[in-house]
Amino acid sequence: MFNSRTKSSNEVLEDVRKHYSKHLFRTIIPRNVTVTDSTMTGEPVVTYRKDASASKSYVEFAKEVENRLRVKR
Fold first, then answer.
1. What values do phi and psi take at 44, rounded to 5?
2. For residue 3, with 0-12 CB atoms within 10 Å meaning exposed, 13-18 middle and 19 or more buried, which class applies?
3. pLDDT tens figures, 44-64
4. Quick check: 31 and 2 in contact, CB under 8 A?
């Protein structure tokens, strides 16, 4: 998960993009309290709070994985 408010997170992201850009997905999963809360309840964040930014990002990431692997529904 990524915290855009910290300098270290942004520096790591920049460095990873510089060295591994062709292997990365576009979606960035934001760090937020909803993920922690859902973990504490034992429920996936995407069902715990569908409208949370992390939930939306995980769904978007799953779509990217499907597209990259060419998974058909």
1. -60, 140
2. exposed
3. 999 999 999 999 999 999 999
4. yes
